[in-house]
Amino acid sequence: MDIKSEILRLKKEKDILILAHNYQLPEVQDIADYVGDSLGLSRQAANTDYKTILFCGVHFMAETAAITCPNKKVLIPDLAAGCSLADTINADELRKWKSEHPGAIAVGYVNTSAEVKAELDYCCTSSNAVNVVKSIPEDKEILFLPDMFLGSYVAKMTNRHNMFIWAGECHVHAGIRSQDVQQKLNEYANAEFLVHPECSCTSSVMYDIASGDYGSRQVQVLSTEGMMNHAKNSASKQFVVATETGILYRMKKLNPDKQFIPMSENAICKYMKMITLDKVHASLKEEKYQVKVPKNIATKAQVAIERMLAIN
Ligand code: 13P
Ligand code: SF4
C-alpha cells in the first residue's frame, strides 16, 4: 500500500481528525480532513467530536488546539516545527512590558507560545485582529504583540492612536518587500493583489492605497483563508499573492481557471515544510508527539483564546 493510502487507512482505523494549515506541503493538504487558516483550524479543533487531532501545522497551532480541547489528544508530527514570529516574545518580556503600561489591554496574535497567551487579555488571528481591537473600549491603551506589521495595519484600520506595538516579525513575510510589490505591479497590469497583513510590504501598501498610488488596482489585505475566499468569489482571473507560497497549491486546485502568481518565490516557511507524509504516517502509527500544556497555563490562556473564537 502506498503511504497516502496507509495514512488514510490508519486515520480511519484510529478515528483521528487531521487538520492542516494552508501553508502545508501539497501532499499533506491532500490527506487532511480540513485545510484552513489559524482561526478556522482553531474552530475546527474546538468543535470536533474526535478524541484525537493530528495537527499538520506549527507548534503554537497544535498548542492552541490542546488548550481549547483539554480532553482530547493533540498530536504534531514534528515538535521542532516552530515559528520565528512566536519566538520574538516570551512571557517574562510580556510581563515586563505590561508592568510598564498598567491598565493596558494585552492583545496577542495566535502566533505566540501558551505561556505568552496566559498573560493576554485577548488572542486574535490575522482574520479577526481588526474586530478584536474594535471590541475594546477606545479609551483603553492596547499592547499589541508580537507582529509589528499586523499591528500597524490594525492601528491604521481602527484609527487607534493608543496602541503600542511589539517589534516582532515573521522572517518569511518580512522578506516580502515593497520592491517585490513594485516589480509585480509593473509586470501584471490586470492582476488583483492579495496581501497578508504580516508582510513588511503591508504598511507601504496601505499607505499607497490611501494616497491613491494603486489607482484602480484591486488590493486586498487578508488572512490566508480570506485570500482563499476572495480568490474564489472575485471575477478577476489573475492574482498576485503576497504570503507563504504553500497557499498557491490550494488556490490553483480550487480555481483551475484562474492564475496565481507568488509575490516572492522565496516566501517559504521552513517550519511549515517540516511536516512531511513520512512524519504524518509515523505520528498516526505511534500516536506521537502529543502536545501538552500545563493546566495552570492552559486555564489562563483559554480565556484569551475563547475571546478570539467568539469574534469573527
Ligand atoms: P493565517 O491565520 O492567516 O493562516 O496566518 C497564519 C500564519 O502563520 C501566517 O504566517
Ligand atoms: Fe510563523 Fe512566519 Fe512560518 Fe507563519 S510563516 S508559521 S508566522 S514563521
Write the layout of secondary structure elements.
Elements: H1 3-14, E1 16-21, H2 26-31, E2 34-36, H3 38-47, E3 52-56, H4 59-68, E4 73-75, H5 91-100, E5 105-109, H6 114-117, E6 122-124, H7 129-134, E7 142-145, H8 148-158, E8 163-165, H9 171-174, H10 178-187, E9 192-195, H11 201-210, E10 219-221, H12 224-233, E11 238-242, H13 247-254, E12 259-262, H14 277-286, H15 295-310
Parallel strand pairs: 1-2, 1-3, 3-4, 5-6, 5-7, 7-8, 9-10, 9-11, 11-12
Helix pairs in contact: 1-14, 3-4, 4-15, 8-11, 12-13
The structure holds 1,3-dihydroxyacetonephosphate (13P) and iron/sulfur cluster.
1,3-dihydroxyacetonephosphate (13P) binds next to loops.
Offer a concise description of the structure.
This protein has 312 residues and is α/β, with parallel strands linked by helices.
Describe this structure in words.
It is a single chain. The protein folds into 3 domains: about 5-80 and about 270-290, 3-Layer(aba) Sandwich (Rossmann fold), CATH 3.40.50; about 85-170, Rossmann fold; about 175-260, Rossmann fold (3-Layer(aba) Sandwich), CATH 3.40.50. Helices cover about 45% and strands about 15% of the residues. The chain is built from 15 helices and 12 strands. Strands 2-1-3-4 form a 4-stranded parallel sheet, sandwiched between helices. It has a 4-stranded parallel sheet with strand order 6-5-7-8. A 4-stranded parallel sheet has the order 10-9-11-12, with helices on both faces. It is globular. The structure holds 1,3-dihydroxyacetonephosphate (13P) and iron/sulfur cluster. Iron/sulfur cluster binds near residues 84, 85, 172 and 269.
